[in-house]
């Protein structure tokens, strides 16, 4: 991967402090800073100005918060062959895996380490991801990006040159460069709560059958055997309200996190079109403590085996363990994403069956995970009415073992047969509402036209300059991101700070400039939980660099929606294509994004400016360039901006001029609300106000009635 990708991915953590300061301080203080990116300011300004900048950006000590910082996006120009060469020359050999190479962990094997003194035979293995260089030890939990690992290699080489006679007996410690995986400061409260909850709970075997069975019935787990619960070292809290399951890395290890299962007595308010209704397993609420962690529930029972079943919920894992001879583990984040640290634990399994449930979204996530884990060793149980999740199968009286036998291997993406497509064809006919994708909550008319947001498609979006394309796309993507559609924003026209500020205002429905810092923190805390990522590109960029950064984000963060605003910023930057005319170059770029969407099963929304023509109303032929854009696109959306007799008022509407999936064309009227920067129809009772209103109005503005 090209070195130009380095540090081009950011989360809201990057821009949060800048956004807060922008909204509260005078604009003139930031005019001089607007020409620099955050990294450029910190690197290039003199120390005196840097300290001034830190005072402007940082809130007061009482308001300072620890913000989650992404650590696995540090991409360097390192090939898999180079990683193998270094592993062989520095560690005397390696074990080739499906996604990693494993070497003896320098921390576990260090002469001064406690693990090395007490170990009898097998010490930890440091797994180095062949694509990103990210390292993780499955025993001492040492981890870090390739940049940190490379610094350790340099220190090792220097030490060997200076003190060759002592190199074997006391090499430098790798822990000075990598770090042991620990809970971050923001999750220490969760870690303390986990310990308190675990210590106050009672073991499952201490309860009588008369007490235990009614509680398990509330979780729809009444058929579980006591033996399965004992193997999982399950506990129940004192008031018999929660089932607590520890995540263990081995049978005698200390637990690192817990999964908490609580009966959900409230009926879901989500209707059938709501994607979240598909995420619920018959009234069971699951919670992780700490929330962000890489540990696999049930791994201590699967360790050392050749085959494993991956599930998305703890209830499915318990059901599979109770019904099947094959061990099962639960992913730490469900169908949301597969962390690189978790992949190290799965490296030893020769066969992985993905049984994630959750309908179409679960199947799409399973395919994305299979590409990361290696398709040759992965099998898939497609979620459908006939083969739902393991828990649902048992509740419906189906044979769970027979469903497992129906798992199909992940075949080559370019070769298929009708037999492998038969179930999908049947679902296209009978379950069109579920197959059509994630539905917009803020734009119900758009859902009626496009039927939903689907992976693997290319949407071309156009409209006049200044009509509000970026503003609309911000809300359009925010709606989907709030439904766990992991989104990557590539804004080359406006900086990420301004984009994040606009999203915060749309997210809250409030004019945040008039609100207190407490209100801002509440809104920002909720917004940070969304799976939203940003590319740090700005201005003219090379399309190859952009595609490499996108590819990295899809692999590491399981991105399913990419927005590029806009295509014109990637034209005219490649010297090797200087002989090509502008239209030909644009066709090549569009073809690259089309292939990216198909190969990675990711939805790409691409903004293209219209031709500079005096036209009252735009059409498909108004898109700048040749016919490639309209031919390759699955959807074409046009933001129309028509003048009226009143010069202060314009009539805006979104026109769907191409819809390859459903074929429905039409328009969606738009009314812009300046206070919330929103195009969505307002709720009748949506008002801005106090902090409590912000909390309760979370995502309420713009929801379909």
Automatic annotation (TrEMBL):
Keyword Glycoprotein carried by entry: no
Record-listed E.C. numbers: 5.6.2.3
Superkingdom to which the source organism belongs: Eukaryota
InterPro entries recorded: DNA_helicase_DnaB-like_C (IPR007694), P-loop_NTPase (IPR027417), Twinkle-like (IPR027032)
Top EC class for this record: isomerase
Coiled-coil boundaries: none
Occurrences of domain SF4 helicase (ranges): 432-686
Cytoplasm listed as a keyword: no
UniProt catalytic activity: ATP + H2O = ADP + phosphate + H(+)
Example GO biological process: mitochondrial DNA replication
GO molecular function, a single term: single-stranded DNA binding
Pfam families the record matches: AAA_25
GO CC annotations on file: mitochondrial inner membrane; mitochondrial nucleoid
Topology in the lipid bilayer: Peripheral membrane protein
Subcellular localization: Mitochondrion inner membrane; Mitochondrion matrix, Mitochondrion nucleoid
Keywords: ATP-binding, Helicase, Hydrolase, Isomerase, Lipid-binding, Membrane, Mitochondrion, Mitochondrion inner membrane, Mitochondrion nucleoid, Nucleotide-binding, Transit peptide
Name this protein carries in UniProt: DNA 5'-3' helicase
Species in which this protein is naturally found: Daphnia galeata
Lineage: Eukaryota, Metazoa, Ecdysozoa, Arthropoda, Crustacea
């Amino acid at each position: 991967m090209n070195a130009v990708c380095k540090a081009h991915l950011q989360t809201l953590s990057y821009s949060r402090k800048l956004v807060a300061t922008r909204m509260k301080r005078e604009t003139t203080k930031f005019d001089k800073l607007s020409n620099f990116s955050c990294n450029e300011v910190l690197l290039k300004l003199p120390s005196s100005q840097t300290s001034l900048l830190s005072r402007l950006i940082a809130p007061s000590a009482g308001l300072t918060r620890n913000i989650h910082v992404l650590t696995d996006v540090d991409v360097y120009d390192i090939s898999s062959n180079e990683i193998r060469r270094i592993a062989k020359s520095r560690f005397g050999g390696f074990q080739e895996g499906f996604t990693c190479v494993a070497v003896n962990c320098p921390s576990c094997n260090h002469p001064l380490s406690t693990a090395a003194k007490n170990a009898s035979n097998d010490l930890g293995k440091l797994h180095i991801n062949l694509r990103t260089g990210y390292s993780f030890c499955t025993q001492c939990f040492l981890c870090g990006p390739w940049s940190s690992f490379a610094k350790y290699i340099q220190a090792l080489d220097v030490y060997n040159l200076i003190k060759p006679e002592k190199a074997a007996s006391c090499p430098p410690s790798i822990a000075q460069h990598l770090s042991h995986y620990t809970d971050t400061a923001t999750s220490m409260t969760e870690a303390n709560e986990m310990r308190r909850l675990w210590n106050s709970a009672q073991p499952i075997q201490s309860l009588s059958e008369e007490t235990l069975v009614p509680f398990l019935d509330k979780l729809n787990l009444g058929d579980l055997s006591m033996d399965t619960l004992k193997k999982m070292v399950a506990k129940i809290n004192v008031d018999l309200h929660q089932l607590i399951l520890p995540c263990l890395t081995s049978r005698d290890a200390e637990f690192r996190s817990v999964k908490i299962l609580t009966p959900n007595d409230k009926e879901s308010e989500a209707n059938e079109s709501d994607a979240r209704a598909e995420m619920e397993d018959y009234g069971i609420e699951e919670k992780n403590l700490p929330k962000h962690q890489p540990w696999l529930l049930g791994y201590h029972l699967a360790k050392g085996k050749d085959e494993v079943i991956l599930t998305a919920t703890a209830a499915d894992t318990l059901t599979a363990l109770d019904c099947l001879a094959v061990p099962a583990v639960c992913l730490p984040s469900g169908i949301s994403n597969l962390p690189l640290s978790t992949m190290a634990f799965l490296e030893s399994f020769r066969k992985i069956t993905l049984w994630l449930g959750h309908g179409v979204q679960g199947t799409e996530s399973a395919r994305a995970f299979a590409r990361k884990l290696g398709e040759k060793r992965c099998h898939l149980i497609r979620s459908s009415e006939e083969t739902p999740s393991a828990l649902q199968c048992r509740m419906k009286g189906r044979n769970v073992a027979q469903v497992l036998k129906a798992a199909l291997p992940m075949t080559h993406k370019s070769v298929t047969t009708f037999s492998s497509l038969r179930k999908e064809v049947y679902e296209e006919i009978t379950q069109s509402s579920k197959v059509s994708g994630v539905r917009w909550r803020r734009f119900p008319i758009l859902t009626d036209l496009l039927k939903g947001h689907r992976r693997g498609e290319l949407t071309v979006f156009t409209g006049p300059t200044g009509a509000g394309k970026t503003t609309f796309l911000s809300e359009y993507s925010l709606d989907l991101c709030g439904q766990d559609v992991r989104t990557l924003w590539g804004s080359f026209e406006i900086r990420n700070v301004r984009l994040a500020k606009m999203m915060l205002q749309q997210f809250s429905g409030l004019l945040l400039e008039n609100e207190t810092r407490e209100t801002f923190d509440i809104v920002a805390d909720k917004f940070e939980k969304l799976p939203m990522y940003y590319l740090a590109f700005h201005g003219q960029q090379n399309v190859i660099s952009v595609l490499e950064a996108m590819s990295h984000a899809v692999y590491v963060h399981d991105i399913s929606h990419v927005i590029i605003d806009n295509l014109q910023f990637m034209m005219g930057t490649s010297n090797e294509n200087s002989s090509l005319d502008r239209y030909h170059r644009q066709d090549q770029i569009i073809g690259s994004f089309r292939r990216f969407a198909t190969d990675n099963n990711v939805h790409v929304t691409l903004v293209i400016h219209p031709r500079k023509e005096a036209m009252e109303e735009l059409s498909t032929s108004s898109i700048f360039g040749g016919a490639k854009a309209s031919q390759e696109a699955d959807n074409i959306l046009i933001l129309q901006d028509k003048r009226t007799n009143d010069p202060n008022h314009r009539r805006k509407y979104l026109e769907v001029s191409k819809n390859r999936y459903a074929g429905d064309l039409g328009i969606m009227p738009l009314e812009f609300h300046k206070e919330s920067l929103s195009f969505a129809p307002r709720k009748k009772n949506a008002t801005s106000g106090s902090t409590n209103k912000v909390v309760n109005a979370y995502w309420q503005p713009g929801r379909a009635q």
